[in-house]
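Q: What structure does this chain adopt?
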Amino acid sequence: MNQYVIAIDQGTTSSRAIVFDHTGNIVSTGQMEHEQIFPQAGWVEHNPVEIWDNVREVIGSALSKASLTRHDIAAVGITNQRETAVVWDKNTGEPVYNAIVWQDTRTQPIVDELAADGGVERFKQKVGLPLATYFSGTKIKWILDNVEGARAKAEAGDLIFGNTDAWVLWNLTGGPDGGVHATDVTNASRTMFMDLETLQWDQEILDAFGVPASMMPAILSSSEVYGQVHSSQLLREVPVAGILGDQQAATFGQAAFQPGEAKNTYGTGCFLIFNTGEEIVHSKNGLLTTLGYKLGDDKPHYALEGSIAVTGSLIQWLRDNLGLISTAPEVETLAASVNDNGGVYIVPAFSGLFAPYWRADARGAIVGLTRFANKGHIARAALEATAFQTREVLDAVNADSGVPLTELKVDGGMVANEALMQFQADILGVPVVRPKVVETTALGAAYAAGLAVGFWKDLGELSANWGEDKRWEPQLPVEEQERQLRLWKKAVTKSMDWVDEDVR
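A:
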């Protein structure tokens, strides 16, 4: 009995439920994609009701594939796409608007308005984040300002907010029938509203945004029992006991528990997290200061993060928008059809540039095209864009920490692409290491939940589960590495200053 932990991974493109055993190995998986909604340029939305329906479906799928029932499950962990904002009516459970996704850039006028008094770093000392469209805060304000009747209902105490972790937790524990309205410190740290030191919502910042404090979920640790699954659900009475934002969950799943350890997750975007321990380190090089994790009553662990908006979604764009490939794995074959990128560089600034530039005025660019260039070169340039962006973030981490990283642990869907991993090692000049279990995001959420209920006893037990699958050593001569990096940086400058009053 209670031999397993189940993790709900509510991601940007799909929702998954993964069952793990005590050794951290995958027992079964259920997965469903949800619709990506693009009402206009720069707008990205999801349907929260579809997401919740899919979460219930994938839980059933994962249990049935392994012939398990709720009696076999010790705890539920949740991990999620961070910064994607849902506002809903607490009395009916109905969202007042679609979820506004972290990639969405519609709130740039709100950013500009708030930055007029104190600049984009107006709140950074308190919250670790610059003013940007990326974070949840401006999305909540947009909904209150633009959805008819929303502000009046919010001020009356009828509307509540959450990133998708809080949306799933609330529904899982009963919704309008006593659902728990809470989030963990990692998700709270992505709203722009949480004070990094007190781990509480900052009333002054909420007031500046015009967001009622009554909308905000309770801030809890990443590993504790928040409540039990409601009697109407398949997993009824199983404790929900772990929540971590997806990138922090991946770091936890990689067992990067010590200061100085880091990982890079290759998904829709790319996110490098560097553990700074119990110390809050404020970046001077374009990185974010964020919460790494907090276990129960223990002290919080902090991190530096380099967030890259577009990596895996660039491959989706080649498939869905250009029709260059019919399935994502084909990009590796197409890229291998040429010896190099043919002088072609793609800067995928579809939502502006995130770390380390933070340039909302940037837009995507393909540069270096000649008649020689073909679709193989474009495919190769798309893969290489991921590695170049990671190099720039790693340079910023090294500058902030003063301790150069000696190897990079990697995870996420794109690490199956061996050509990309080799180029990543080449352009970084340090080894790249892939673990045996690459589903580290879900694993991290499972670990947090399992720790809270005693399924795992301590971090040492989790570290013992980690195993190396493959290592790539750098092979590119230093001169060629520097030449490629110089051309990449030149390409990045060509994407800037595109958006002005006439172009959005």
